[in-house]
């Protein structure tokens, strides 16, 4: 609880009855896995159900005199969930804030530090600080995806095609997983900035819009990463097809050269009488010379037709 610039703890049972200056913050962690937690009885049913929902997407809704906002951010520790980002559900009534998470959220440490430093005065400050903390943590991670894709583009001619395809597929999967919640985060914050509550000050609206703009830029970057990854995948497929074509051409050239040679050697290798010059000492070298001339003639024909060019 923050009151008169002093932060102190109070029992959860007193949260519903708090009427002082400043605001009180009740945070419940692990909801949805350890059973239904006890929430203040003053919460509207719609807000309580939204806080305890098993599956959530970022959103912001006005309910009576408060607002429910769901956001997604980086987890404090890796989770076994399939979702890339973990959720936080926040019910704000100006002087009372109730938040619920199923997994620890990394950004909450910054919000708690700001509260302990006396920088947060009401629910609007709290949500603005939370939005800023989540967006600033995600921004470098999104930028790293773009940088990693730049490295893939730079090494497309020299790297192992199969390893590079796996790397690009992983980057594209990460971009899709992040964008799934980054874009709704933007919409939720933009909606929050437009709510007509007195506890959302002008500065809070500026900070909310700033965080929403950052999420919008990240969503655009993630969409660009996804499209670039798809183009790189197609380029690698074309490159692999080109390599296969070159190897097939080399094999075809070798096979075409040896085809007439095989015919000559097969014809002269029959165990029948009457093979010309079989009793002459120069016969072997004569046949060898003919074979060399045939091979050179075939290579010359390929060169004239420009079939040996890369």
Structure report:
The protein has helices spanning 45-51, 108-116, 123-154, 161-192, 202-268, 283-304; strands at 2-3, 6-7, 24-29, 59-63, 66-73, 86-92, 96-101. With 310 residues, it is an alpha+beta fold. It folds into 2 domains: 2-239, Magnesium transport protein CorA, transmembrane region (Methane Monooxygenase Hydroxylase, Chain G, domain 1), CATH 1.20.58; 245-304, Methane Monooxygenase Hydroxylase, Chain G, domain 1 (Up-down Bundle), CATH 1.20.58. The strands form 2 sheets. Strands 3-7-6-5-4 form a 5-stranded mixed beta sheet, with helices on both faces. It is rod-shaped, with a radius of gyration of 35 Å. The mean pLDDT is 82.
